[in-house]
Amino acid sequence: MPSGRNIGVRPMLISLIIVKPDTVIRWHRKGWKAYWRWQSTRSGRSGRKMTTPEIRELIHRMACENPLWGQRRIQAELARLGISVCARTVAKYMRRLYDGTPSAPLGGRDWSHQRGAQG
Length: 119
Prior knowledge:
The protein is mainly alpha-helical. It is 61% helix and 0% strand. The chain has a domain at 53-100. It starts with 8 loop residues before the first helix and ends with a helix.
């Protein structure tokens, strides 16, 4: 077909009626799905970087050597060393360290003895 030639509205409408609207929507969704898959794989690994085994070992070591330190304190100490990790990540690896069970109270006593002294 020569360029610049007007084909008219009627032939265009006939060609548009052949395809159902559901088909057009399906093509559109499939195209966007392919586009975003391409975008996510283009930059290499997608998602958050994994915590290295060295940092996990350091968290483990700090928690064992300083049992009174909590997640925030360990996070702060790691930040002083130039390691950026959130407190939630520290808590996650501390929980794995203790197998999810709470530690025993210091001195083997709980706080019930304090209730009687208060009145």
